[in-house]
Design brief:
Elements: E1 26-29, E2 32-35, H1 53-65, E3 72-77, H2 84-104, E4 112-116, H3 129-135, E5 137-141, H4 143-154
Parallel strand pairs: 3-4
Antiparallel strand pairs: 1-2, 2-5, 3-5
């Protein structure tokens, strides 16, 4: 059933039940809870009529069965009869009355908020009673669900999006090796520091005929001259 009287447009239903499933008074759909009929109030008051109690209990039942719904906004709307500021105030009071009813049914107050729009958001013409009756309504909106839907619409397609590359890491510099410590010189037998080893002689250069020149003989160390005998002391 798809026409202006379909109060559950996103759910298959019967004409007898205003387009909603058979015997259902409230239905959870994307972004809201649809109700089969209007919430009735006393004329120009915020007092809920008893014939709407069952409907609101059905809304409370849905909220109890779906604790993942963190927040729901109860919206109040009116027709254009009367002054605009009066209708705005009336819509706010009626929405608040519905919230109070749901709290009495066991719904946490933190999950509920109310908002009145007066005559600013009509869904039908206010030129006849049928249209005005449609505009006098209460709507149950799930703001988080609506935001999540919009977020998914705006999100890029995962199948075509190019994954971001991770930044390349620069290779870590190898730590410098410490220079080997010089071995300490061993002390001589008398406790004095040992003398450094003599430097090896440079290799001999080859002669003009290609033969290697014989190394020069090592010079023998000169012997120290003997000490001269001391002269005898003079006689007195």
């Amino acid at each position: 059933m798809l026409n202006d009287d379909d109060r559950c447009p996103d759910t298959p239903g019967t004409k007898k039940n205003h387009g909603c499933p058979q015997n259902a008074m409230a239905v959870l759909v994307a972004g809201r809870i649809d109700i089969v009929e209007r919430v009735y109030f006393r004329t120009d008051k915020d007092i809920i009529e008893a014939r709407s109690f069952g409907l609101l209990k059905s809304v409370a039942k849905i909220l109890k069965e779906h604790p993942e719904i963190a927040k729901i906004t109860v919206e109040g709307h009116t027709d254009n009869q009367g002054k605009a500021d009066h209708n705005m105030d009336l819509s706010k009071r009626r929405a608040a009355a519905v919230v109070k009813f749901l709290v009495k049914e066991g719904i946490a107050e933190a999950r509920l908020e109310s908002q009145g729009y007066g005559q600013t958001r009509p869904v039908a013409s206010n030129d006849d009673e049928t249209g005005r009756a449609a505009n006098r309504r209460v709507v149950f909106v799930i703001p988080d669900a609506a935001g999540a839907v919009q977020e998914r619409v705006n999100a890029p397609d995962a199948s075509t999006a190019t994954p971001a590359k991770a930044p390349e890491k620069a290779p870590a510099a190898a730590p410098a090796k410490p220079a080997p410590a010089a071995a300490p010189a061993k002390p001589g037998g008398d406790g004095a520091a040992a003398k450094p080893a003599p430097t090896a002689p440079a290799p001999a250069k080859p002669t003009s005929d290609g033969a290697a020149a014989k190394p020069a003989p090592a010079t023998a160390p000169s012997k120290a001259a003997p000490a001269a005998p001391s002269a005898p002391a003079g006689k007195p």
